[in-house]
Write a structure and sequence with these properties.
By secondary structure, the protein is mainly alpha-helical. It contains nine helices and no strands. It has two domains: about 90 residues, Rna Polymerase Sigma Factor, Chain: A, CATH 1.10.1740; about 50 residues, Arc Repressor Mutant, subunit A (Orthogonal Bundle). InterPro entries: RNA_pol_sigma-70-like, RNA_pol_sigma-70_dom, RNA_pol_sigma70_r2, RNA_pol_sigma70_r4_t2, RNA_pol_sigma_r2, RNA_pol_sigma_r3/r4-like, WH-like_DNA-bd_sf.
Length: about 200
C-alpha cells in the first residue's frame, strides 16, 4: 500500500501544500464522487455539474497553493463548501436565479424529488398547502431545525446565507435541514399529512 493511501485527508492536504502532487491525486480520488454527487444533487444537470465540478477543483488547487487551506478537521467539508459557493456564483451570474426555484421541478427540499418528504406523487396538494402544513408541524421541531426550515422555505434563503445568518458552517445548516426533514416525515405520518408538491 502506498504511503498516501495510509494518510488522512488532512495529512494529504498538508502534504500537497508542501509540494507532494501525488497527495492531491489521492485526495481527488477520495473526494471526487462525493463532491460531484453533491453538485448533481443541487443542479440536476450532468453537463453543468461537470463544469462546476471542474471549477470547484480549480478553486481548491488555487486556494491550497495560495496557502488558504485552513485545517478544520474535514477536508471534504471544506471542498463541499467551495462547491456550494461555486454553484451560488453560477446562479448569481445567471441573472440572480436562485439555486433552488420553488416552482422548478416541484422540489422544495432540494432533494431531487417531487415530494418534500416522500419522493412520490401520490395525493399531491398545492405548494401553498404544503407550506401551511410544514409551518404547523415545524412548531414541534427543536429551535435550530425550526430556524433553518423557516429560513429555507419561507424566506427562500440559500444555505450559504443561512450559515452566515446563524453563524454556523454550511454543512451544519445542511445537517440541521436533514434532521428537520426526518422529523417532519415522522410528524406528517403521525398526523396523517401528505407533504407532496404539485
Amino acid at each position: 500500500m502506498s504511503t498516501t493511501k495510509r494518510m488522512s485527508d488532512e495529512e494529504l492536504a498538508l502534504a500537497y501544500i508542501d509540494g507532494n502532487n501525488s497527495a492531491f491525486d489521492e485526495l481527488l480520488s477520495r473526494s471526487q464522487d462525493k463532491v460531484f454527487n453533491y453538485i448533481m444533487y443541487v443542479v440536476k444537470d450532468e453537463d453543468l455539474a461537470n463544469e462546476l465540478f471542474q471549477e470547484t477543483f480549480l478553486k481548491v488547487i488555487t486556494k491550497m497553493q495560495g496557502g488558504r487551506y485552513a485545517e478544520s478537521g474535514k477536508f471534504i467539508w471544506w471542498v463541499t463548501r467551495i462547491a456550494h459557493n461555486v454553484i451560488i456564483d453560477h446562479y448569481r451570474a445567471q441573472k440572480g436565479r436562485k439555486v433552488v426555484d420553488l416552482n422548478k421541478e416541484n422540489d422544495l427540499s432540494n432533494l431531487n424529488s417531487s415530494s418534500i418528504l416522500e419522493g412520490n406523487r401520490e395525493g399531491q396538494i398545492s405548494n401553498a398547502q404544503v407550506l401551511s402544513d410544514v409551518r404547523r408541524l415545524m412548531k414541534a421541531l427543536p429551535e435550530p431545525q425550526r430556524e433553518v426550515v423557516f429560513m429555507r422555505f419561507f424566506q427562500e434563503m440559500s444555505f450559504k446565507e443561512i450559515a452566515e445568518q446563524t453563524h454556523v458552517s454550511i454543512n451544519t445548516s445542511l445537517g440541521r435541514m436533514r434532521y428537520a426533514l426526518m422529523n417532519l416525515r415522522k410528524l406528517s405520518h403521525q398526523y396523517g399529512m401528505n407533504l407532496t408538491l404539485e
